[in-house]
Amino acid sequence: QVQLVESGGGVVQPGRSLRLSCAASGFTFSYYAMHWVRQAPGKGLEWVAIISYDGSNEYYADSVKGRFTISRDNSKNTLYLQVNSLRAEDTAVYYCAKDGGPYSRENYGDYWGQGTLVTVSS
Amino acid sequence: EIVMTQSPATLSVSPGERATLSCRASQSLSSNLAWYQQKPGQSPRLLIYGTSTRVTGIPARFSGGGSETDFTLTISSLQSEDFAVYYCQQYDNWPTFGQGTKVEIK
User: Fold this and answer.
1) Contact between chains at A106 and B99 (C-beta distance less than 8 A)
2) Residue from the list A106, A107, A115 with its beta carbon closest to the beta carbon of B43
3) Does residue B8 have a cis peptide bond before it, meaning omega lies within 30 degrees of 0?
4) pLDDT tens digits, chain B, 106 residues: what are they?
5) What are phi and psi of A62, to 5 degrees?
6) Contact call for B94 and A45, based on CB within 8 A
7) Can you tell me the distance from the alpha carbon of A30 to that of A53, in angstroms, rounded to the nearest whole number?
């Protein structure tokens, strides 16, 4: 069965960095685009970043462009999100999600991890 | 950016009743509309994609419809496990969500 397990969250001071990871199993990771979506405490969902199945294309929300970098290692079945220059408004649970279709970029998530909490606070 | 607006914010329904949730897009969409269910402390769960295609394993009481700017999720007979927050999401271009509709027990 499909499993997505995020890690790397924690409490960090404004301006600092973190690297989030998402370990995937139960499907052919290299066939699917992958996504990061976040949810601030008690708030709605915000799409953050997308990476194509082969890592050749990346897409970002305006709110994180230039600060966050999505990447993947298909040999390790792992997705990453490097988050730099963190701000208080980046405080959220960060979910990774598998794209709904192979090779294409459907841009909806058919499986989601349990999330990792990033708290930006001094 | 396409803005998605859901209504109502909260829907109070008795078990066994029908619930209709609305989602309006700020511009016309193709069929690239998905619905998710989220329970407290859990990650979102995909219910519907392509406006009306139900995910394998999702009960038939969930149905999606609509076109252009107006879309609906209907739960034909609410079960106890259906009380949750529901989000619509468009994926015509950069993905955006509605703010959610909370379905609560009346």
Assistant:
1) no
2) A115
3) yes
4) 999 999 999 999 999 999 999 999 999 999 999 999 999 999 999 999 999 999 999 999 999 999 999 999 999 999 999 999 999 999 999 999 999 999 999 8
5) -60, -30
6) no
7) 6
